[in-house]
Specification:
The chain is α+β, with helices and mostly antiparallel strands. 33% of the residues lie in helices and 22% in strands. The termini are far apart.
């Protein structure tokens, strides 16, 4: 079996679902997926639009996701009803799970994050 530790890595984020995919020379793994119906909460937690992650390293994305989780925990506006996504799809709890998956999946060296809107 070929050693995959030296494989080039890239991440892809796509919408209307935000998908962060780990791609190596051998496999592709979805690290996290969540509906963009929760875009308001995602952007508020990040402090910017998710497109700002385009071209970032996994380490930078991990740090941004950790900061987003801190904001969700510490800012009372995330508990307000108007921060919840409309249309019955998504929740702030789901956004929290999404960012936790991003943190867990971005502990790799090398690669880049690419944002794609499909």
């Amino acid at each position: 079996m070929k050693d995959q530790t030296a494989s080039p890595v890239k991440f892809i984020v796509s919408c209307p679902d935000v998908v962060i995919r780990l791609v190596t020379l051998v496999n592709a793994y979805d690290v996290a997926r969540y509906t963009m119906n929760a875009g308001k909460a995602i952007s508020a937690a990040l402090g910017c639009d998710i497109a700002a992650l385009d071209g970032k390293t996994p380490q930078e994305v991990c740090a941004a996701a950790q900061e987003a989780l801190r904001r969700i925990r510490e800012r009372p506006e995330f508990a307000r009803k108007d921060m919840q996504p409309t249309g019955g799809w998504g929740s702030v709890k789901g956004v929290t799970l999404f960012f936790n998956q991003v943190v867990a999946g971005c502990h790799v060296s090398g690669g880049r994050v690419y944002v794609n809107f499909e």
